[in-house]
């Protein structure tokens, strides 16, 4: 699978039109239904390659787009979500500088 190709498990005759927000691989138990003793085996079945990580991020992005941005009557929620995400990101990258400006009491 190269950059820009369909996933290897995608079959247009079976799945219909391609949806970038859908995982076309073999279905597994959802994380919410995994028992504590099975977490190690469940994590061992995950594909941990860079391509798999990029695919997961891409699917999450497209799911977010389909839910909040693409509907005909989309509200203001995606703008607030991006604002809060960017504020959190910039706070985290500047935390080392900001922690020196705390107000300490010396008594």
Automatic annotation (TrEMBL):
PANTHER family: ATP SYNTHASE F CHAIN, MITOCHONDRIAL-RELATED (PTHR13080), ATP SYNTHASE SUBUNIT F, MITOCHONDRIAL-RELATED (PTHR13080:SF20). One of its GO terms (cellular component) is mitochondrial membrane. This is ATP synthase subunit f, mitochondrial. Keywords: ATP synthesis, CF(0), Hydrogen ion transport, Ion transport, Membrane, Mitochondrion, Transmembrane, Transmembrane helix, Transport. The keyword Aminoacyl-tRNA synthetase does not apply. One of its GO terms (biological process) is proton motive force-driven mitochondrial ATP synthesis. It comes from Drosophila lebanonensis. The keyword Transmembrane helix applies.
């Amino acid at each position: 699978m190269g950059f820009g190709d369909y996933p290897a498990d995608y079959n247009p005759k079976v799945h219909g039109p391609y949806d970038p927000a859908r995982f076309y691989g073999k279905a597994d138990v959802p994380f919410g239904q995994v028992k504590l003793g099975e977490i190690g085996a469940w994590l061992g079945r995950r594909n941990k390659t860079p391509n798999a990580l990029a695919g997961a991020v891409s699917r999450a992005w497209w799911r977010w787009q389909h839910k909040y941005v693409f509907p005909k009557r989309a509200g203001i929620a995606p703008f607030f979500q991006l604002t809060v995400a960017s504020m959190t990101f910039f706070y985290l990258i500047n935390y080392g500088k900001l922690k020196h400006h705390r107000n300490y009491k010396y008594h």
